[in-house]
Amino acid sequence: IINCRVFAISTTVKEGWILKVSKDLLQVFRLAHNYLDPDGVILFDLNTVYKYEEILGESVIAENREEGSFIWENYYDPEEKLNEYDLTLYIKEEDGRYRRFEETHFQRAYEAEAVKGLLEKAGFQVEKMLDAETGGELRRETERLFVAARKRADG
Q: CA 142: distance to chain centroid?
């Protein structure tokens, strides 16, 4: 990418990518900063610590849908702030049979203030941090955080 006005990041990673706490997320922000045009914007959302600790935690979620079924086995380590989930998918094939797929995903939990600090350290000015579901102010019960930050002119 040579000229980029907006950069988006996925914080859901397979088999571990952004996992080594702050320094790796800081590196991702620094790389995004390098590729953005002056005054460019970075947009992303991420699950909150609250969601991992209070909603997902140690749980199993299963759904049966017309196109397939899944089993989601979730594990959260509050000390490491690391969420792991094993996903077993049964996807319906054209001949009516189901094919089984298995995946393991890891997600790191970050406090909103930590994310803001890392963005500022990488040369961004945080424009908005909102509850992704309501579009309103962050609350203790916010499950997903939406972030918009602008590349600082001095950054």
A: 14
